[in-house]
Each structure stands twice: as structure tokens, then as C-alpha cells.
Structure prediction request, 205 residues.
Amino acid sequence: MSPHVLGLLSLFVVTLATSIVPGPSNFLTMRLAVRRGRGPAVAAALGATAGCVLWCAAAAVGLAAVLAAAPWLYKVLRIAGGLYLIWFAVQLWRSKPEPPAGEPPSGAARAAFWQGLAICLTNPKSVLFFASIFSAYVGPDSPTWVHGAAVAIVCLTCLVWQVALALAFSGVRAAQAYARAQRPLDRGAAVLMGGFGASLLWTFG
Prediction:
């Protein structure tokens, strides 16, 4: 097996592990699935995948070099991500209980897509992944096919995992369980989101 293929296999493993680790994108997809239904949750998954595509493009044009030359840019991204997550946590905390997921309101899928995209783009975990791990597989010495394969692996892994969450948590049982405990679940998610955002602001220096 060639070194390039082995490298791509290791990239898949790391990407899958990174996707599975609980984080803002996963929380958003799961919550939308049980609260809004399958359509908005899948839209959020597509938004998160679009964010991966944009980060891949940034890595291809030298994201690691840009951050090394301008470390303040990472601090700005970290602060922006922290503030966004805290704002999102406040909205979760203040949200009112709703009936079990039925027909989503007009524009729900569009809003979910932009939420998924925004959370992916403002998540510093994404910045570090694409500036370090991913950039190692799209270096100037790598063949063109390796570049394309690396992008496909990352984006498809992100998409499949997010869509799997959307499908799993949009089931009838998950929606009914959520409906019985909306307020504590929403506020628990708000605490997790807010805590993650606050940690970004606390350690940005």
C-alpha cells in the first residue's frame, strides 16, 4: 500500500474521530432533529458540510501559513466563535417549549443551514484541524489526486456523520422523549454551548 493511501486512511480515521467528539455542530444537529424534524436537521448538516468545504479551500490556499504570519487572526476567530456560541446559548436558554416535531415552520430549513454553516466556520476546532492536520495532506509536494481525495474524505465524513445524527434523532421516539423534557434539555444544551463559548474567550490570550 502506498504512503499516500496510508496517509489518506489515517486522515479518515482522524476526521471521523474529530466529527464524533461532542461539539457545537453535533449539538445543533441533534437539537434541530428532535425539535424541528428531519428536514431542518439535514439542512444544518449540509450547512456544516459547506463550512468544511470552505475550510478546505482556505487550507488549500495556505491557511497554516496565514495563521503563522498573523497569529492575531486566530485570536479574532476564537473570540468571534466564543461570542457566537454564547449568543446561541442565550437563545437556547430563553427558548419556549414546543409541541413534538411536526411540519417545520416556513424557512426553518434555510435558517438551519445558515446556523450549521456559522457554527462550523466559527468553531476554533475547525480552524486548528484544517490549519494543522488537514494541511499536512494538501502540501505543495502532494499529487493532485491526493488533494482531491483528502477534500472528499473530510467533506463526505462530515456529511455522513451529521446526516446520521439528523436521521437518528429525528425518529418518533427521540422526538417524544425530547417533548417530555424540553426545558431541562434545552437549558442543559445552553449550558454546554455557553461553557464552550466562555472557554474560548477565557483562553484566547
